[in-house]
Amino acid sequence: MLLKDLENIFHKELDAIYGKEEVTSFFFLCTDAFYKISRLQLALDRDLTITKSEQQPTFNALEDLKNQKPIQYILGETEFYGLPFKVNENTLIPRPETEELVALVIENSKKQKQNPNVYSILDIGTGSGCIAISLARNIENAQVYAMDVSAKAIEKAKENASLNKVVVAFIEADVLKLRYTELVSVSHKFDIIVSNPPYVRNLEKAEIQNNVLDNEPHLALFVEDNNPLIFYKAITELAKEKLKENGQLFFEINEYLGEETKALVESLGFKNVVLIKDMFGKDRMLKANK
User: Fold this and answer.
1) Is residue 166 part of a domain?
2) For residue 234, is it within any domain?
3) What is the count of structural domains for the chain?
4) What's the average model confidence in pLDDT over 123-133?
5) Is the pTM of this model over 0.85?
6) CATH code at position 111
7) Cβ atoms within 10 A of the Cβ of 23, count?
8) 112: pLDDT confidence band, cut at 50, 70 and 90?
9) Which of 116, 231, 247, 106 is nearest to 178 (CA)?
10) Could you tell me the residue range of the domain that residue 220 belongs to?
11) CA–CA separation, 191 vs 3, rounded Å?
12) CB neighbours (10 Å) of residue 216?
């Protein structure tokens, strides 16, 4: 079968759901993943073919896409901060705004770093490990810990740490039930604590696309309407105990609850609490000093 004919089938079946440009992107992600054929190769040779036995993975992907399964889950991989990551139904698909959070942490670490021998970082709610691993790759002499309540998510994060050739200490624990001594030794303190915790209220589900609602882990996404800052309170209380003096706390936040999150962090004794907007002008990040 000619690959260009397969591409036409993709457009016929999917353009009405996703639009032509996104379908083109999906198709070339599949040809690269399944056949190691790039978009450039196919542009240079429109007569490239695959055998009948090779067609099935692409037709399976087509059916999954018709059912609005995310392409990242179909292929089992994605890219974040220029690095490859394996993902599955136990991990959120990393978002561009979280890349902005990583960039913010890296930028601030360069300004704040004083001890060249060790720079201790804790990522809470690590999921696929994208934040922890990206920081480990980009901050010199970083000693990175990453925590998640999901054993299956940690399993995938460990795979990603190995894939990206970094050392991260993973901790399976629930920050809402955590005893600080279970995390690391009582004397251990961190330079940075960073988190992208669950923050979408149930009342906001109407704003979430079906492909997210039907596929991504709700445990990592949603919080109850009557207590939407539950994770921010628990993490900030932990940070109060476990950050070094003048250590930094970084959050990705709910755009609708920026001022409330800032007030919470300030009420727990943090200083220089700043809301930071993302590329779309939404309150999406917060940083603070102990």
Assistant:
1) yes
2) yes
3) 2
4) 97
5) yes
6) 3.40.50.150
7) 20
8) low
9) 231
10) 89-289
11) 52
12) 22
